[in-house]
Specification:
Strand content: 15-25%
Oligomer: single chain
Number of helices: 16
CATH class of the largest domain: Alpha Beta
Structural class: alpha/beta
CATH topology of the largest domain: UDP-N-acetylmuramoyl-L-alanine:D-glutamate ligase
CATH superfamily of the largest domain: Mur-like, catalytic domain
Strand order of the largest sheet: 2-3-1-4-5-6-9-10-11
Bound molecules: zinc ion
């Protein structure tokens, strides 16, 4: 992509920085507007401000933000000077705003490395400008169906992005057949990560997202299952199959609230590793982060060691202190994510209360029919669940669904006012798990910050 001349570069960078400054002064962080302004002035400004940077782009439906966090942490631990687009604005203009704001006034990048979270449909727009060294695809689950028309369309969007970036190394989940199919018919190198059969995690089998074999249209068979449609898949007709991971988890020794202890095998060596974020899906994210560092051509040991000190990010298992009681927040936005969250919160031998919040705004997807495909029964029938608060714009629909799942009036309370919810939470004596979707998370987080003092991400 041709870079703009120096005058246009300076004008575009100045407009971006000035717009962002003004927006933040008025309390609006993390918006795409500064990027829109900058790209109006110079369409190719992104090519200038990313020139020479070594960039990892992370896409996929679940786990993007946590993966980005882990990769940035691993790169920083490896001695790299690394930028992360923290604002959560993961469409083209939001990413542009972050990259431009972190360049000099002459449009030269201040960082050598960048980890960029990118929406699945925006990948094809972004890659021609930034020439990523690696593209990480976390996984593909049904998500926000009304935006992309289903998971197969999302896969096509990502494939177009990959085809526009043939020199990028792909970092792919070996057990997820949809994103694994991106390796077919492209010249890109691939680094695979995954969980071996010996890990023995047996989640619920749900093949509704798995699709058919991309080579021959045959059905997949599984040697073993991890969760949803992830596992040791193999086409019964043509033999298209899971690839052996370059970074693989050979066993999970312990899963606890403060993280997991795993055996990680890479480059012929197996070692005990602590991943400081809980739940099986974070074991995947951790293996993916190490694979991303491998794709960047860097030594792995410091990256592997960094997994023990990784911290949760904005809304992904973020912990709040409510007058001495613990509240953990888990962003949930589709059935697969919800089911994993339920496995996590019901997996401890301790009583707890829970909050479920459901909005249906643009940032969430307007179609909430996915709640019918979600295993709320697992949560509602857990003997440790003491109280269930239901909030958000669509609290009434969710409450109805929870009633069917076994949560009667003795268990659930619908609270649509977040300040009132906060009053209830302050009285809670059990640890609390909050599971909001995206825009409801922002609202819940705002009231929680009044008592716990966590900072907004741009502060
Ligand atoms: Zn096949």
């Amino acid at each position: 992509m041709k870079k703009p001349n120096v005058i246009m570069t300076i004008a575009s960078v100045a407009a971006c920085k000035f717009t962002r400054f003004v927006l933040r002064k008025t309390g609006r962080g993390g918006t795409a507007v500064p990027g829109i302004v900058a790209m109006k002035i110079s369409k190719n400004i992104l090519a200038a401000v990313s020139d020479g940077m070594k960039i990892v782009v992370v896409t996929g439906t679940n786990g993007k933000t946590t993966s980005c966090n882990m990769i940035e942490h691993a790169l920083t631990a490896s001695g790299c000077n690394c930028l992360l687009n923290k604002s959560g604005a993961n469409l083209l203009h939001g990413i542009a705003a972050d990259l431009i704001s972190n360049a000099t006034w002459l449009g030269k990048p201040k960082y050598d490395y960048a980890v960029l979270e990118c929406d699945e449909a925006a990948l094809k727009q972004l890659v021609p400008f930034v020439n990523p060294k690696a593209i990480v695809v976390t996984n593909l689950f049904s998500d926000q169906v009304d935006r992309y028309g289903g998971v197969q369309n999302t896969l096509k969007e990502i494939r177009t992005g990959v085809e526009r970036s043939p020199k990028s190394t792909l970092v792919l989940n070996a057990e997820e057949p949809l994103s694994a199919s991106l390796a077919l018919n492209v010249p890109n190198k691939v680094v695979w990560y995954g969980l071996d059969a010996s890990v023995g995690v047996q989640g619920n089998i749900d093949l509704s997202d798995a699709g058919k074999c991309p080579k021959c249209g045959g059905d997949y068979e599984y040697d073993y299952h991890v969760y949803a449609h992830l596992g040791g898949f193999r086409c019964s007709k043509c033999g298209h199959t899971r690839q052996t991971p370059d970074v693989s988890v050979t066993s999970i020794d312990k899963i606890a609230a403060d993280g997991s202890t795993i055996q990680l095998k890479t480059e012929g060596k197996t070692q005990t590793v602590h991943v400081a974020l809980p739940a099986v899906y974070n074991v995947y994210n951790a293996a993916g982060a190490v694979a991303a560092v491998k794709a960047m051509g860097l030594p792995l040991q410091k990256a592997i060691d960094s997994l023990a000190s990784v911290r949760s990010s904005f809304g992904r298992l973020e912990t709040f202190d409510l007058n001495g009681n613990r509240l953990q927040m888990i962003l949930v936005k589709n059935p697969a994510g919800c089911n994993q969250a339920f496995s996590y919160v019901t997996g401890f031998d301790e009583d707890f209360s829970a909050i479920l919040c459901l909005n249906d705004r643009t940032g969430d997807g307007h179609d909430i029919s996915w709640i019918n495909d979600t295993d709320y029964e697992k949560l509602c029938t857990c003997p440790h669940l003491k109280k269930l608060y239901v909030a958000g714009d669509r609290a009434a629909d969710l409450s109805e669904r929870l009633r069917k799942a076994g949560a009667g009036d003795d268990l659930q309370t619908v609270v649509t006012d977040y300040n009132k919810l906060l009053e209830y939470l302050k009285q809670e004596k059990y640890p609390i798990f909050a599971m909001p979707n995206y825009t409801s998370m922002m609202e819940l987080r705002a009231v929680l910050n009044q008592v716990s003092g966590n900072k907004d991400f741009w502060e």
